[in-house]
Amino acid sequence: MFNGTSATLMLQTIMVLMDQQNSTTHFPSYEDAEIERCYPPYGCFSKAYPWTEHRPDNYFPVSPETLGVRYAVFTRRNRKIPVLLESQNVDKIRNANLDPKGPFYFISHGFLEGGHKLWIQNLAEALLNHAGNDGSTVTVVDWRRGSQPPYGQAVANIRLVGVMTAHLMKNIYDVLGLSNMDNFHYIGHSLGAHLGGYCGHALQKNFNLKLGRITGLDPAAPYFSNTVTLVRLDRSDAQFVDIIHSNAMPLYFSGFGISEPIGHVDFYPNGGSTQPGCKNGGQGYQGMDSDMYRKVVQFVSCNHERSYEFFTESVAPTCPFMAVQCKSYEAFLEGDCTTCSNKHLCVPMGLHSRDMYRRLQASDMVDTNSNIALYAMTGSSKPFCRVHYEVTLKVSNSTESILHGPDVGRISITLVDRNNNKSDHKLMNEEQKYYRPGDIETKLLAFKDTGHPPISVIVEWKYEASLLNPMTWRLLQSSSVYVEYLKISSLEYNTDITVCPKFKKPVVTKLKTIMKTKYCT
């Protein structure tokens, strides 16, 4: 089995091999001198600047016939067997019996994938099931023939697929007699995200129509980072562009996703680069065979894939899935942005972000020409949604606390709501910490939502003696800590409570202590 380092090295090797696949001694050809190639009625595609910038190679898209793009349409009436549309076949659109009320969703996969992937099926089903979506249409943009290695060719292919998809959207718009495209929502993962950008750009350039929304799920970084907006997805491509970054770091660190903020709102869950539960690259990779491209990419792509898992869950989330504007993830963790305000806007991550953005827009709180970077914490497994609390702990400076002296351990807290529902427990610090009388500590912690804000807290003292650390030795008395109070401030519920131990008793190791507001004097 590969470890993280060897998997990263293997990934880099594979990316190089993908761009050199079947290469032989190269002689100048007509194609090398060719600057532009045209595919009527979709237009012409150039290989000149800016398509050469930050790219080790440059290809033309293959022909529409070679791409063989399939548009599989699902509605609540046909969830299992799709209606297959073609970008230029108006009769098939007329016979598809699409509901003009919409909404109209378009979902696209990325490199090495196809429209048959389970995540696409799950997302399509979630969108169709969503309340109020009775007339919804989900179209899967399946360009699997064009998503194969070499990577540079797949990058070129999405330019044509984007224009073809724009033609399909325009024909749907005409057949249904729509007045605008506000209700059209394109959702793309990795290379598929930039494909959505090309689609939105083509709609404006060719038909003077503006796509309602594009959601970029960890848009691909290789060949797109630090390029001009024409080359990649950006907020000019639709009325609203939202991005979920889940693997935004360099390729040599097993990163696939772009780090730059490129939408109206850019979400950086858990910092946007690595995700909890993906420390070892997801499921282990075993064995080597002719399908090593896919196996290695699967091994290291857990973080990259988490973006579409977040979005799918956001359709019907278990909690608000709120993210908050902050200058950086580090500042967010330090508790600099724990309330929703004009300086720290709050927007739910995923499907419902546009509704909140519109409300902020109506209140003149956002500038559509600028970007909002937002941060959140999630769980390591489904359901990923968490609620955020700023927790401030004060160690008592009482006579009893001073006599007891400092102690080394970890403090665990569990929130309890009015229905006696308990959250998961969270540690103030993963490692043992030296707590002194009078110390004050503040942390931002994320808990599973119980449905209501907490009214009490269960506190535990985790103590582990170490022969190498005399500060952990407790020979004559049990290890404990005198907590004067805990202040719990909720981001999502906008509530504050302060709880204290009964009779100012210490929190003793292996004993749970219930703290309530009424115990505070």
TrEMBL record:
Keywords carried by this UniProt record: Calcium, Disulfide bond, Metal-binding, Secreted
Spell out the subcellular localization from the entry: Secreted
Q: Which PANTHER family match?
A: LD47264P, LIPASE
- Species source reads Bicyclus anynana (Squinting bush brown butterfly)
**The keyword Membrane is annotated on this UniProt entry:** no
Occurrences of domain Lipase (ranges): 37-359
Which CDD domains has this protein been placed in?
Answer: Pancreat_lipase_like
| UniProt: Ca(2+) binding residues | R232, D234, D237
Q: Does the keyword Signal apply?
A: no
An annotated GO cellular component of this protein is:
extracellular space
Name of the featured protein: Pancreatic lipase-related protein 2
